[in-house]
Amino acid sequence: MKTIFIPAKVKSEINAKKISELKLPKNIAIAYSIQYKEVASEIRDILSKNNNITQFIQVLGCSRPKFSKDTKAVLLISSGKFHAISLAFESNLPVYILEADKLRKISDDEINSIKKKKTSSYMKFLNAEKIGILISTKPGQENLKKALSLKLKNKPYLFISNELNTREFENFSEIQSWVNTACPRLDFDNSVINISDLNLRHSKNSF
Length: 207
Description:
The protein has helices at residues 16-20, 37-47, 82-91, 108-127, 144-149, and strands at residues 27-32, 52-58, 73-77, 95-99, 102-105, 131-136, 157-161, 177-180, 192-194. Helices cover 25% and strands 22% of the residues. The protein is built from five helices and nine strands; from the N terminus they run H-E-H-E-E-H-E-E-H-E-H-E-E-E.
C-alpha cells in the first residue's frame, strides 16, 4: 500500500499595493507555514523591490529556526499567533504577522506571557518531588538518550509515546512537573519545561 501526501494550500487574494506600502525594517526574513508557501512567495516578490529579504524559510510546529545576523525583523505568513509568539520569544527579533493585509507586531505583553509561563514551569520543576519525562518516538523528536542522561535527585517517571497530549496529564495528578524532550512547543503548558531550558551542564551536578 502506497501513502500519498496531498499538500494543503491556502489561496488568498493579495493586495500588491498594500503589501508594497507595509512599513517594515529594511532587512527582513520571511517565514511561512507550508500551507502559505505560494502566498509567501508572492509577498516576497513584492517586498523584495524595497526590502532586503535575508531569508525565506518554512516554519514547522516543532522547529526553532535561526536567522542571520543582518536580519532586523521577521514577517510571518501563517494563521494564528502560535508560531509568531514563539518566533518572537526565541529569536529576540520583532515579529510581524499579516492579518487581512494589515501588519501587526507581536507585543511585549504577548512575549512576557511566555516568559512568565517558563518561569512558573521552572519553579514547579525545582520544587517537584515527582517528575515525569516526556519522550516521543517520532523521528526527529526522539531524544531517549538525553532523557536517560538527565540526572535528578528523585528518580523520574518516563512516559514514552508517539503522540504526546498534554490533556492526558490529568490522569497522572501525582506528577508535579513534566520535562519535555520532544516538540519544544509543548511548554506552552506551564507544568512543562523543555529539557533545553534546564541549561544542564555536563557535570556531576544534579537537580
